Amino acid sequence: MALAAEVPRGDPAAGRAAHDRHAQLRKPPNSLGDLESLGVALAASAGHSPPPIPLSPVVLVAAADHGVHARGVTPWPQTITARMLETICAGGATVNALARGVGARVRVLDVGVATPYTVPDRAPVAVRRAPVRAGTRDLSTGPALTVGEAASAMRAGAAETRAALDAGADLVVPGEMGIANTTAAAALIVARTGVPAVEATGHGTGIDEATWRAKVALVETAAARAPAEPLAALAEVGGLEHAAMAGAVLAAAARRVPVVLDGVSSLAAALVAVDLAPASRDHLFAGHRPHEPGARIVLERLGLPSLLDLELRLGEGTGGVLAVPLVQAAARVLHEVDELGELAPSSEP
Ligand SMILES: O=C(O)c1ccc[n+]([C@@H]2O[C@H](COP(=O)([O-])O)[C@@H](O)[C@H]2O)c1
Ligand SMILES: Cc1cc2nc[nH]c2cc1C
Predict the structure, then answer these.
(1) Which UniProt keywords apply (predicted)?
(2) Mean pLDDT throughout 197-209?
(3) Any idea what the CATH number is for the domain that residue 18 is in?
């Protein structure tokens, strides 16, 4: 896939330069702990030290529905996807509140919402309508998508991301809205990592134990069908929003723009992106450590340290948005802190 070929590796020399610079700043060595590692990773991603301070973050919320909803894997009606899309466009969802707090723009991309919705022309947040189909097919009975459909949704996510970057965005948070998508995310994670479904399947928005056991069995069976090729696996058990977020990851990584991940669905999408383009790993940052068990498996697999640990399980991009100030801080330190100069400790006691 052409998108994947465009992703450059991070530059270890830029990372080393940031590492060395931290040692020269007016503070004890390593005193900023994980923030220093974050600054090093940002420099490697950018290919430059100090890395740019990302002052124009964007959260791209990909929305879509899931045929597996018919299996009772979530307590919420499918129409909630459309209602929440309307809420996000009206500015009243959690992601809007958190985005306002950090000065992030919100963009909404419909890649397959099954229920009609209305967004007024003058809504605070516009929706870009690029539906591939009205939700996936039921992944428990056969392929959720054709490979062509998955590729279309991925291209739509990439195109929307490029549009955001062309408009000045310099950090991307892939977010999503899709009732039942924790089932697809778990199936994708099981398919790509080989972990048992019982370890990767969570309770999503809140299900009882009997429903959870049925969800685990369904995830196990579906993931076993998934082919080895990443896009084909995504088509077999994933969702349209997962494909769109994978496209967003690749499009941002291709321009060395940091991607701050959110919950289990964005992490499942990132796993596919890294399988398609291993270099994209060098531009990924985990905003937080989500509550969902599958998310934690992906963090481990990708070797991504999480910036926050708040037991979040909302999605929409919220956990990525919350971490934006930390990313800005890590870059800012490398730009603005004075050098040690005459404060350098002497080698004599
Ligand atoms: O981000 C997460 O880790 C997360 C965990 C649980 C639920 N969600 C959100 O809730 C919806 C999916 O939950 P469910 O139970 O319907 O599969 C979807 O809209 C996600 O944005 C998100
Ligand atoms: C109300 C609601 C809001 C959400 N935001 C992301 N997923 C969601 C799921 C529900 C049910």
Answers:
(1) Cobalamin biosynthesis, Glycosyltransferase, Transferase
(2) 98
(3) 1.10.1610.10
